[in-house]
């Protein structure tokens, strides 16, 4: 059996989760790995068969996506060419973690594509949503990387096809410590924005992992470092608390380790708004923005409360379940784009039914 595992390379969370999933998949079958995107910082410890430019959202410096740079960085002709030339039919099973080249290649060539990632669970009817609806954000979650079956990860499980987070073994095996510093990962903010907001807390040591700096440096009570999975893990496991975006992997690992956690959702990012809604219900501090939030940050720093959840290690059993189910399905012949745009019944029989 041959499996293609396709990973979204825009955010480091997808890449981080892959470090746990790919080694397990290789116990079941021959596995090729595909990555698309130009915003990932992590080097993966296994061979990459396909590396595509993809469709990336470019992080800004004021708390959100830089829309202009995102548009300017698009390469639509290359994206289409990559879709056409990707040989998806040579694989028995295709697993897709919100990766658009593979998803659309499967749509074009009538090949089943199995979605396995956080985005698949965000729109579950039982998952909390922000009060403000975002049609564009919902459309991105549905159609950016369309798939024929969906399995999702979230901070809570909602049914037999949604699971609790994949926690890296480096976190599971670590002995939590408290060296008194706070670990920060806010990739959509510039170093200057972060320094302006956090330097006022002069009695706090901050270790910031910066998307915008290629070298480490110190500025007052703040140490800035380039993103590195090993260095981040060391800082994270020995921290007093974690301040990060309302993404998925880092908050999940903070919950597992029982670290004091505060999240700042990226602006105009519906997925993170959904994450923040659920985290708030769970008792996690949600801060709306970085600038002008001194009082709320001070209140969080002064608290001793932390949410801790002992997420079980289910990675192997989840992958076994998915592979066994998908192996038994007959190959379906589909016309181009039909499951995505034209057939409501097809969508209704996918996970989470009426999104």
Description:
The chain has 355 residues and is an alpha/beta fold. It folds into 2 domains: 2-167 and 314-348, Glycogen Phosphorylase B (Rossmann fold, 3-Layer(aba) Sandwich), CATH 3.40.50; 170-302, Glycogen Phosphorylase B (Rossmann fold). Helices cover 37% and strands 18% of the residues. It is built from 15 helices and 14 strands. The protein has helices spanning 12-28, 67-73, 76-85, 100-109, 119-122, 135-143, 169-172, 191-198, 229-237, 249-257, 270-281, 294-302, 315-327, 338-342, 344-348, and strands spanning 2-8, 30-36, 50-52, 93-97, 114-117, 149-153, 162-163, 181-185, 205-210, 217-219, 222-226, 241-245, 260-264, 285-286. The strands form 2 sheets. The chain has a 7-stranded parallel beta sheet, sandwiched between helices. It has a 7-stranded mixed beta sheet with strand order 10-11-9-8-12-13-14, with helices on both faces.
The tally of helices reads 15
Number of strands: 14
Name the CATH class of the largest domain: Alpha Beta
In helices, the fraction of residues equals: 25-40%
CATH fold annotation of the largest domain? Rossmann fold
Please tell me the CATH architecture of the largest domain by its name: 3-Layer(aba) Sandwich
Give a nutshell description of this structure.
By secondary structure, the chain is α/β, with parallel strands linked by helices. It contains 15 helices and 14 strands. The two termini are 32 Å apart.
Main attributes?
355 residues, alpha/beta, Rossmann fold, 2 domains, 7-stranded parallel sheet, 7-stranded mixed sheet, 37% helix, 18% strand, globular, disordered C terminus
């Amino acid at each position: 059996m041959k499996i293609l595992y396709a990973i979204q390379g825009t955010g480091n969370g997808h890449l981080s989760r892959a470090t746990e999933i790919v080694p397990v998949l290789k116990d079941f079958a021959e596995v090729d790995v595909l990555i698309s995107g130009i915003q990932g910082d992590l080097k993966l410890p296994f061979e990459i068969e396909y590396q595509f430019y993809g469709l990336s959202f470019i992080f800004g410096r004021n708390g959100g996506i830089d829309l202009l740079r995102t548009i300017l960085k698009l390469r639509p002709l290359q994206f289409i060419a990559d879709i056409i030339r990707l040989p998806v039919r040579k694989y028995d099973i295709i697993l897709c973690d919100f990766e658009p080249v593979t998803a659309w290649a499967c749509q074009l060539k009538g090949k089943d594509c199995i979605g396995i990632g956080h985005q698949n669970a965000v729109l579950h009817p039982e998952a909390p949503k922000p009060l403000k609806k975002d049609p564009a954000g919902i459309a991105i979650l549905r159609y950016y990387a369309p798939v024929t079956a969906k399995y999702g990860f979230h901070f809570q499980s909602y049914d037999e096809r949604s699971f609790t987070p994949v926690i890296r073994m480096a976190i599971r095996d670590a002995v939590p410590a408290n060296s008194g510093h706070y670990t920060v990962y806010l990739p959509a903010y510039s170093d200057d924005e972060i320094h302006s907001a956090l330097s006022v807390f002069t009695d706090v040591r901050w270790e910031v992992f910066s998307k915008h700096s290629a070298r480490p440096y110190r500025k007052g009570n703040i140490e800035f470092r380039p993103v590195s999975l090993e260095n981040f893990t060391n800082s994270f496991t020995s921290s007093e608390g974690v301040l990060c975006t309302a993404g998925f992997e880092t908050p999940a690992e903070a919950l597992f380790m029982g670290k004091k956690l505060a999240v700042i959702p990226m602006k105009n990012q519906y997925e993170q708004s959904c994450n923040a809604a659920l985290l708030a219900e769970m008792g996690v501090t949600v801060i709306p923005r970085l600038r002008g939030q001194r009082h709320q940050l001070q209140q969080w720093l002064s608290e001793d409360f932390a949410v801790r959840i002992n997420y079980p290690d289910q990675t192997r059993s989840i992958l076994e379940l998915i592979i066994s189910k998908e192996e038994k399905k007959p190959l379906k012949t589909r016309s181009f784009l039909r499951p995505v745009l034209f057939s409501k019944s097809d969508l209704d029989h996918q996970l989470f039914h009426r999104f």
